[in-house]
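@channel anyone free to eyeball this complex?
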Amino acid sequence: MSPVPPILELRGVHKRYTVGAGLLARRRTLTAVSGVSLRLERSEVLGLVGESGCGKSTLARMILGLEEPSEGEVLLDGRPISRLGRLERGRLVQPVFQDPYSSLNPRRNVAAIIGLPLAVHGVGTAAERRDAVAEMLGLVGLAPRHAEAYPSQLSGGQRQRIAIARALVLRPTLVVCDEPTSALDVSVQSQILNLLLDLRERLGLSYLFISHNLAVVQMLAGRVAAMYLGRIVEEGEAERVLGHPRHPYTAALLASVLTPDPSLGLPEMRLGTAFPNPLSVPPGCAFHPRCPAVFDRCPREAPALLPCPEGGRAACHLIEQPEGGPPPPRLVQAA
Amino acid sequence: MSGTADLLLDVRGLEVDIPVAGGTLHAVRGISLAARRGETLCIVGESGCGKSLTSLALMGLLPPSAKRRAERLSFAGEDLLSASPRRLRALRGDRMAMVFQDPMTCLNPSLTIGDQLTETFLRHGKGNTRAARDRAVTLLERVGIAAAANRLGQYPHQLSGGLRQRVVIAMALMCGPDLVLADEPTTALDATIQLGILQLLAELQREMHMALVLVTHDLGIVARIADRVAVMYAGQVVEEGTVGDVFGAPRHPYTRGLMDCIPQPGRTVPGTRLGTIPGMVPSLVGELRGCSFRGRCPYAMPACAEPIALREGPDGHSWRCVLPAEALARAA
Ligand SMILES: Nc1ncnc2c1ncn2[C@@H]1O[C@H](COP(=O)(O)OP(=O)(O)O)[C@@H](O)[C@H]1O
Ligand SMILES: Nc1ncnc2c1ncn2[C@@H]1O[C@H](COP(=O)(O)OP(=O)(O)O)[C@@H](O)[C@H]1O
Ligand SMILES: [Mg+2]
Ligand SMILES: [Mg+2]
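replying in thread with the prediction:
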């Protein structure tokens, strides 16, 4: 008996883009994703967090087969994604994107939008497809009458429900949710998050849940990975990573979550203002120009993603410092 | 409590109507607000509730089709309703300044940072070119921009979004305003960058003893920065008070509902369901009678269809709801 493979495995995945079009501009290589290795087990929710531009959506597109890695491998259910047929792939992984306005075809009605993946792959008879669409509408909490509506007649929350129904109609195992609630008001966001929780329980789905909002991620994710300039800098059980972050970047992301508690003021956080630029990644640890705990080793040497004593992995030289040993020498930080 | 001398912005019964295809959109429906020197007032509500139109109406910057009415709209004791366009221009940028969500609203892409910063200062006759330049450098340093003198020659597109917003804040402060009105100034920014901007605004507000009116949809920001908060729904302020009172013991079911929708690390147990507010905001086209939240309210009763009087508690806490004050006092 062979062990069940993880639904998703990334092995040393890189994605490089050539940028700088035009006659005079110098062509340069932008590394959007750099050496990412991750596993996502069946029925698990992995939260992927990080600031805009750190490579989350690029990673998502490679997992969905919309782009090919420049290097490394994406495996779905133990098989390289490049060797899967389109239908096979569609039955393993489906997306839900941020913007329910631009991701739905405005010229098609809801039934056609949800049924499209079935029609494209010629799955079932016309009658079976109609039944499947009706079932999906119910599953995502929409009324049968919505089948005839067009996206422009629906609210943002209803559109996101349709995007979810379309993602589920092929009964995938993994759903890649890329900022699924970032464009929504909080009262609508909570409905969509509740729906995603319900669907996971009912259908045993796995999610790769991408968000810049850690409060949202901690609602859903069993495991969390934090990304900075294309690299995973910390990864592990959500409780550990969000409860006791070991990487100063994860700690900074957490500190910047503003819970609506008026007894607390604005948290003190002194991250340097050096805005991360994937076209000029700092040497050594890419986070060092902003890191409040930077010391002399950081600009010289890139830290490896190593196991932490508390579980999970983190890429920070501080972790290799002996517990209770002398504090590492501090660099004087530029203001 | 601060005295009337500190009252900078005094607004009573502000209304904004916009003609639209089906009739008149009553986007702002009788708002009263007060902003005091040394205080931060937050206006919070979900998209479309009228926050931006309220801000623009206060600054006299509404689009031409929008009609503004108010019982009172005064700034530092001066009536803005009867003020000439010329007088308003003189006040704006000098004693009252505005910061928008998109920094490019305030920045000209074809002018250098330095030209734009000094222009406001010079236009309002605050001093000569030399003084303007010195003040620009001081303020750029103050908003955390390194090598400020070298930035003066740069163009907006050479800066990141976070830096641009810092430049806009510096620009708003060039003439030392009494009031800064910021409409979603950090909404487009990452949380770490947002925090830096909020810290900056809070520090500057204290240091310069200004009134800060911060418009946002984010209750977390409000909780951490506001002295007072006005919660808006469908063009009205449904609840107003100190942030401790409004968040600690909300009196309006909409405020309560919004708080319950937010996941809070450390409080919300992972995997549990969040609160929701079913239904949708009613159309604001045409006449609306009674409470505009009643169609979505779990406590709605026949009295909600009648005009709702403003009720008041201690410390100026006020709300528009007929429920007994204790009705929402269950555990947060
Ligand atoms: N097709 C592309 N060509 C060039 N650069 C790209 C392309 N797609 C993404 N990038 C760059 O890659 C980086 C990561 O982008 P993205 O994956 O969208 O980040 P995130 O989703 O975390 O905000 C960014 O610097 C972005 O500008
Ligand atoms: N120029 C305009 N013409 C027509 N309707 C408008 C205009 N500006 C805003 N509105 C409408 O007025 C209402 C309030 O808008 P706004 O003040 O921008 O809300 P908020 O800032 O709270 O999101 C919304 O329903 C919006 O669609
Ligand atoms: Mg993205
Ligand atoms: Mg607005």
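from a first look: The pocket of adenosine-5'-diphosphate (ligand 2) is lined by residues B 18, 20, 25, 27, 45, 47-53, 63 (CB under 6 Å).
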